[in-house]
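pinging the channel bc i need a second pair of eyes. not urgent but kinda urgent?? the chain im working w is below, pasted from the shared doc
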Amino acid sequence: MPRFPFCPPVFAALLLAIVPIAGCHRSQAPAVANGLTPIRIQADWYPQAEHGGFYTALVKGYYQAEGLDVSILPLGQYTSAFQVVASGQAEFGLGSSDQILEAVSNGLPLVAVGATMQHDPQAVMVHQNSPIHTFQDLEGHAVACQPGATWFKYIVGKYHLQNVREVPATHSIANFLQDPNYVQQIFVTSEPFFVTKSHGDFRTMLISGAGYDPYRVYFTRSDYAKQHPDVVTRFVRATIRGWQEYLRDPGPANSLILRINPAQNAEQMQYTLQALKDGAFITGTDPTGAQIGHMSAARWATTNDQLTQLGVIRKPIDPARAFTLNFLPQ
């Protein structure tokens, strides 16, 4: 799962050799080659099970059946998916709804068109014997996390924490395994697997449990959505189908991911898939998968209000500018 906008150079070099990223702005009118419309998805990390629905739609031909020739681009080192899409170097990108709201408030012409995950699997991880059992218990402790993380600001404000501090995360569980007092930002679909494999112990607290609950989304440029609604509709439809199928049959997508990202392994991907299912991150409360991709205006408004109160959004916006429900199944 994407922790920071960073892709290790070894993966970036490998993946860029497979899927080259265009370096210039494409014409607004989608070019058609062999009867298919080329589409680039700018991912938010290197290939992993958390992208399984997109790879399922790719490998099972759902995008092709909708007339789309899709390439999934890995996130390069120091690259922003939001800037890549806003500048026209990709038609779609992956991110979270709080990031989209912030980007739109800063002037980027982006709009979310569907939810990859109904809830973000971001969490705080502590050891089993830690005295920290609630977010309020973080008082007096250091938390290894992304510097300036919005969720951290929210937790500090909601629980009126006076003596809690951020320390830079290290992209590793090494410190956690060595220090019984270590507190770390994680994704419940990822780091716990490595702790378990190292015979460590852990407990987790989902950030969403504190009331900060953004979606993980896929987005496009506002002008692209307006000028090519048929393309966006077909992309959303195939993506939702891909996620519905991935939860039933992950094999084809996982095989492709393993080929292009040797840092993954089958056991890790199975752990991630089970965590996605157990947390209902993809499906939400409806286990049939009927609500996959869906979003609500109320959830977007709540996140927008939280960001405004935190001062993350300095120039107030109408949250409806940052998303649309027009391309989702009714």
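so The longest strand covers residues 110-117. and Strands lie at 37-42, 68-73, 92-96, 110-117, 122-126, 142-145, 165-168, 184-187, 203-206, 216-221. — does that match what u expected or am i reading it wrong
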